[in-house]
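Dear support,

I submitted the protein below through the web form. The confirmation email said the job was done, but the results page showed an empty box. After a refresh the structure appeared. I'm attaching both so you can tell me whether what I see now is the final result or a partial one.
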Amino acid sequence: MVDNFRLAEIPLGWYTVATSKEVKPGQVLPVKYFGQELILYRTETGEARLVDAYCPHMGAHLARGKVQGDTLRCSFHGFEFGGDGRCVRTGYGKAVPRKAKLGTWPIREHNGFVFAWYHPERTQPDWDIPVLPGPKEGWTNFRTRQISVKSHPQETSENSVDVGHFVEVHGFGDSWYNGDLEVEGHLLKHAYGIDYLGGKLSLICNFKVEVHGLGYSLVRVNTPRFDANFNLLILSSPVDEDNVIVRTAVSLQNWGPRAWTYLVREAASIGLNKEVGQDAPIWEAKRYVERPILAEGDGPIAEYRRYCKQFYAQQVEVKTAKLPVVAA
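What the results page shows now:
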């Protein structure tokens, strides 16, 4: 099989490592992201923490560890680690080695997700992702689904500006841009419209997109005919350089009776996940073309790719497909 010419570096930013429901108080959950074995655990008081998977003492995998109050205890020699990763006690009851420190990862938890900050040099985050309204503000919680795909966060997030594929891949009646793309540091914003059905059965939705790095895309959707407002999340998390987990999530502003609101949210969640499922085979089979031959109607692909460059700590090493230049 030929080389697929993929992006080779994991971009820095915020990525989802679990839903909040996946890790309960006192639970230890082994996960793999960023090409590394990691441990997500929740203290008995409810704080979620993400740490390196191997004990710095003698290398035991902490998936077999236990939460004890506010610490994570290794099952090999009883070393316990606090929230800053430092060893606070050993199983021997003697002095703690000063160098015994477990690697920790910055995380945020809100809207039912646990997000981790990735930087290849393990630096602290210099921007944050938004906290969205929930049940207290008159919105449902998020309904989440996920799919594993052989792809890269830059490829999956590029769909947010690739309006041209909506009709061909998803079978929508029509699609168009509403205004220009804007970039403000780590934030990319733009808007578009879709007529899902076309013709006399026209069903128009207006979309306002916020891309907060390549792992977190927020889409605010309004359906004028039904006066319905949705928040959609497309969360692409790199397992390693070649594979991602794409989570889709839907929240709906309260709309009529509770049962009806949740039924509409479920239908929207199924539809969004179906669209990602239609994209997945294309992502898995496509090559990365560094300088694509763009046509009118493609949308701001070039602007998006310039925006992406800021999320690579080093020069991106890309095996690119070489395509012929075709005269207009």
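Response: this is the final, complete result; the empty box was a page-load delay. DSSP finds four helices and 19 strands in the chain.
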